[in-house]
Design a protein that fits this description.
heterodimer, A: alpha/beta, D-Maltodextrin-Binding Protein, domain 2, 5-stranded mixed β-sheet, globular, B: MetI-like fold, 2 domains, two-stranded antiparallel ribbon, 14 helices
C-alpha cells in the first residue's frame, strides 16, 4: 500500500475531474435521444389495478403501435397524489403529461375559468363521444362544457344479496320493487334471524348520496349551485335514520371492519358499483357462490333505476408538451375495443366504450355471484343511470356533508333540516 | 512561528490569491463549513416561510401555464384571511380547542406517567432495566403509519382489543373512533402509548443527575422519602419538566399523522379529531386555499409562541 497521503488539493482535483467527466458522459445521451425522435409521456396514477392494466396495454398493444413513444407510469398513494400534483402545478415544473383523475379529486383544480391545469379533450374526442356512456365516461370530468377526463368504466350501483340466507329464511330478495318494500318485506325476517339487512355508512356522504341521487336529488345543479336544501334530502335522511334506529340497517363500519361484518353475515345485502365486486371477492373470498345481484329497488314513481358511483378518468395536463401522444394513449386505453376489453380482463370493469357492449366475453358468468352474468346487469342499468353534476366545489361540499349532515344526523339524531343549513352555511363561507 | 505558518507564507509570496487566502482562511473556513446548512436553511426554511407570509395575504385563483412561467394566480386580499380565521372560522376554533384538550392530556396524564416510569426504572430493586427502557422507547421509533393502523384495530367498536378488555369487566363497547365524545380519550390513549416511554427517558436522565449527597443530607436531617422527592428530586427535574411540557404542547398543536390516518384521511366524527395542522392541510391541499392555509400556519405559530412564552414565564417562578 502506498504511504502517500491524499492532500486537500488532490481531493478537490479528483472530485472536479469526476464531476466534469460525468457531465460530459451525460451529454451524448441527450443528443442521441433527440436524434431518435423518441419521446416519453408520463402518467401519474394511484390505483394498482389501473396501473397493471396500463402496463399490460403498453406491453401488448402500445409498443407495437408506437415504438417511439415510451410511457412512464407512476403510482402514488391516493391521498398523496393530489398534494403532489398541486405542488407540480404551482411550481409549473415536473408536471406529468397525463393524470388519472379520481372523480372526487376533479373539482379543486378547475374552479376558476381560464386557469385550469388540464387540457380540454372535446376536440380530441369529437364524434367518438357517441361511442361512450356519457354518465360514466365524460360527465364526471366535464366542467363548464369542457371535458377534462375520460373514464373507462360503467359504474352503476347494483344491489348484492346473500341468496343462501334469504333462501334459508324463505324470503325472496328479488321481490321488493321499492325501498319501502325492501325494508318492510325483508327487514323483519333478517333481524329475527340475527342479521342486519343493509350496512349504512354513518360517517360519509356516500350512502346518503346514492339514495338521494337515485330519488332525483343532486348536490349541485349545472351552474354549481347547491341543491341539497330540499324536502327530498330531509326525507331521505329521516328514512335512513329510521332504518338505522330500527336495526334494519346497521352501521357499516370502516376499513377492515366492514368486511369482517360482511364475512360474519352481520348484513345480508349491500350495494356497490361494479368495481366493488372486486373488493367483495378480495375481502370475502369464502362467500363465493353465496351472493347474487339485482337492480336497486326504486323510490316509488320518481327518480332513477340506478346512479353511478366512483370512477377514474384519464386527463391531459395543460402543461404537457406531448398532448397528441398523450391523447393517443388515452384513446387506445378507452376508445378502442382492445384497450377496453383488456381493462375488463384485468380489472373486471365493464367498459364505458359502447361498441364492445355486445362482446361475448363481457357476458361471461361469474361464479362468485352464483353463475350470474354481471355484464347483463351492468349494461341494463347503465341505460337508465342518473348523471352527476360534478361541481368544482364538490370536494369542499362533500366534506361539509360528511361532518355537518351525515354524522350529526345518523350518529347524534340531529335535525336534518338544521344540519343541511349548517353545511350550506359553512360551504358558502369557505367557497 | 510554527512550521505550517512558514509554509503558508512561502506560498503567499508566489501567488497573490494564496496570500489573501492565508491571511483570511481562519475567518472564511467556518463559513465554508457552515454554508451547506446555511444555504439549505435559506432555501428550505427562510424562503418558504417568507413566501407563506406573502401568500397569507392572498387568495389563490388558479394556475399560470408553464409558458407563462408557472405558479399560481393570486388575488390580494389584505388581512381578510386573518380576520376570517380569527373571528368567523368555527373549524379553526374547534381545531385549537382539540389541540388544547390533547395538550392538557399530555401535561396532566402523560407527564406524571412518564415520571412514574422513570422512577421505576431508576429504582435500585427493579431488574431488566435495559430491556424495560427498550420496550418503553420502542413505540416512539415505530412508524406513525403502523401505529395508526394498529390502533384502528385496537379501537374498533366491534372487534377491537380495547373493547374486548373492557368487556371482561362487563362494560359496554365504546365507539372509540366513531363516537365524538370518545375520540379525544382515544387519541390521548394513543399518545400515552407512543410518548410515555420517550418522555420517561428524559426524566430518567434528570433523575440520574440528582446529587445523592444532597438526598443523603436531607435524610440525615430527618426528611422522609416523600419530602426528599418533593423538595429535592422534583426541583432538580425542573429543566426536564420545562422541556417535556413545551415539546408536548408544541407536539399537541402540531399533531397530524396519527389522527389523519386513524380517521382515514379525515378529522373524525364531527371534527372531534381535527387539529390545527390537519386543518391547514385540508384548506391548503384539499380545498386549494393556499393563502388561507398560510394564514393558519402563521396564526398557529403565534399561538404556540404565546403558549410557550407563558410556560417559560411560569417556570421562572419555580426555582430550585
Amino acid at each position: 500500500m502506498s504511504d502517500k497521503k491524499l492532500s486537500r488539493r488532490d481531493f478537490l482535483k479528483a472530485a472536479s475531474t469526476a464531476l466534469a467527466a460525468s457531465g460530459f458522459a451525460a451529454l451524448p445521451v441527450g443528443l442521441v435521444r433527440a436524434q431518435d425522435d423518441e419521446i416519453t409521456i408520463s402518467l401519474w396514477g394511484f390505483a394498482n389495478n389501473r396501473d397493471e392494466w396500463m402496463q399490460n396495454l403498453v406491453e401488448e398493444l402500445w409498443t407495437d403501435m408506437h415504438p417511439n413513444v415510451n410511457v412512464d407510469l407512476s403510482l402514488t398513494p391516493y391521498a398523496d397524489l393530489w398534494p403532489k400534483l398541486q405542488a407540480a402545478f404551482v411550481a409549473g415544473a415536473g408536471i406529468p403529461d397525463m393524470v388519472d383523475i379520481e372523480i372526487s379529486a376533479m373539482g379543486q383544480f378547475v374552479r376558476d375559468a381560464g386557469s385550469e391545469p388540464y387540457a380540454p379533450l372535446n376536440d380530441h374526442i369529437g364524434e367518438q363521444l357517441e361511442d361512450l356512456s356519457i354518465p360514466s365516461a365524460t360527465k364526471p370530468w366535464t366542467v363548464r362544457g369542457n371535458i377534462y377526463g375520460v373514464g373507462n368504466e360503467v359504474n352503476p350501483v347494483l344491489l348484492y344479496y346473500r341468496h343462501d340466507i334469504f333462501d334459508e329464511l324463505g324470503m325472496d330478495a328479488e321481490a321488493p320493487a321499492t325501498w319501502d318494500e325492501f325494508v318492510n318485506m325483508l327487514g323483519g325476517g333478517a333481524m329475527d334471524a340475527g342479521h342486519g339487512l343493509f350496512p349504512l355508512a354513518t360517517q360519509s356522504w356516500a350512502d346518503f348520496y346514492v339514495q338521494f341521487h337515485q330519488a332525483g336529488g343532486e348536490f349541485f345543479d349545472a351552474e354549481d349551485n347547491v341543491q341539497v336544501q330540499s324536502q327530498l334530502a330531509i326525507d331521505i335522511l329521516n328514512w335512513q335514520k329510521a332504518q338505522l334506529d330500527s336495526g334494519v340497517y346497521i352501521e357499516q363500519g370502516t376499513g377492515d371492519a366492514q368486511y369482517a361484518l360482511m364475512n360474519e353475515a352481520a348484513y345480508i345485502t349491500v350495494w356497490g358499483a361494479p368495481w366493488y365486486q372486486g373488493f367483495m371477492k378480495q375481502n370475502a373470498p369464502d362467500l363465493a357462490g353465496l351472493w347474487k345481484m339485482r337492480p336497486l329497488p326504486m323510490w316509488g314513481d320518481g327518480g332513477f333505476a340506478t346512479v353511478p358511483r366512483g370512477g377514474t378518468g384519464m386527463g391531459i395536463t395543460a402543461a404537457s408538451e406531448n398532448k397528441e401522444a398523450a391523447w393517443e394513449f388515452i384513446r387506445v386505453c378507452n376508445l378502442t375495443a382492445e384497450g377496453s376489453l383488456l381493462a375488463f380482463r384485468r380489472m373486471n370493469l365493464f367498459p364505458s366504450y359502447k361498441p364492445v357492449w355486445d362482446a361475448e366475453e363481457l357476458l361471461r358468468t361469474d361464479d362468485y355471484f352464483s353463475g350470474q352474468k354481471p355484464g347483463e346487469f351492468i349494461a341494463e342499468a347503465a341505460s337508465a343511470m342518473a348523471e352527476v353534476n360534478v361541481s368544482p366545489y364538490w370536494t369542499l361540499f362533500v366534506d361539509a356533508v360528511n361532518r355537518l349532515i351525515v354524522q350529526p344526523v345518523m350518529l347524534d339524531g340531529a335535525d336534518p333540516e338544521a344540519a343541511i343549513q349548517e353545511a350550506i352555511d359553512e360551504f358558502e363561507f369557505n367557497k | 512561528m510554527s512550521a505550517s505558518a512558514m509554509t503558508v507564507n512561502k506560498r503567499a509570496k508566489g501567488w497573490p490569491v494564496s496570500g489573501w487566502w492565508s491571511r483570511n482562511q481562519r475567518k472564511v473556513i467556518p463559513y465554508i463549513f457552515l454554508s451547506p446548512f446555511l444555504l439549505s436553511f435559506l432555501i428550505f426554511t427562510v424562503y418558504p416561510a417568507g413566501a407563506a407570509f406573502f401568500l397569507s395575504f392572498q387568495r389563490v385563483r388558479g394556475f399560470y401555464s408553464p409558458e407563462e412561467g408557472g405558479g399560481v394566480v393570486l388575488e390580494y386580499k389584505g388581512l381578510d384571511n386573518y380576520e376570517r380565521l380569527l373571528t368567523k372560522d368555527k373549524r379553526f376554533r374547534t381545531a385549537i380547542i382539540n389541540g388544547a384538550e390533547f395538550a392538557a392530556g399530555t401535561v396532566l396524564i402523560q407527564m406524571p406517567l412518564a415520571l412514574g416510569v422513570a422512577l421505576l426504572m431508576n429504582a435500585p430493586h427493579v431488574r431488566f432495566k435495559t430491556l424495560a427502557r427498550l420496550a418503553f422507547f420502542a413505540p416512539y421509533i415505530t412508524s406513525a403509519i403502523v401505529v395508526a393502523w394498529i390502533f384502528t384495530l385496537v379501537f374498533d367498536e366491534r372487534y377491537g382489543l380495547l373493547n374486548a378488555v373492557i368487556g371482561l369487566f362487563g362494560l359496554e363497547s365504546i365507539g372509540w373512533i366513531k363516537d365524538k365524545d370518545f375520540v379525544m380519550p382515544a387519541l390521548i390513549i394513543l399518545g400515552l402509548w407512543t410518548w410515555v416511554g420517550y418522555n420517561s427517558l428524559f426524566f430518567l436522565a434528570g433523575l440520574q443527575n440528582v446529587p445523592d449527597d444532597l438526598k443523603e443530607a436531607a435524610r440525615i436531617d430527618g426528611a422522609g422519602t416523600l419530602r426528599v422527592f418533593w423538595h429535592i428530586t422534583i426541583p432538580f427535574l425542573r429543566p426536564v419538566f420545562v422541556f417535556v411540557i413545551i415539546t408536548g404542547l408544541i407536539g399537541s398543536f402540531s399533531l397530524f399523522t396519527q389522527p389523519y390516518l386513524l380517521f382515514d384521511s379525515g378529522a373524525g366524527p364531527q371534527d372531534s379529531g381535527l387539529f390545527p395542522l390537519m386543518y391547514l392541510f385540508f384548506m391548503g391541499f384539499d380545498n386549494f386555499r393556499m393563502g388561507y392555509a398560510s394564514a393558519i400556519g402563521y396564526v398557529l405559530t403565534v399561538i404556540i409562541l404565546l403558549v410557550t412564552g407563558v410556560q417559560l414565564l411560569l417556570f421562572r417562578f419555580w426555582k430550585v
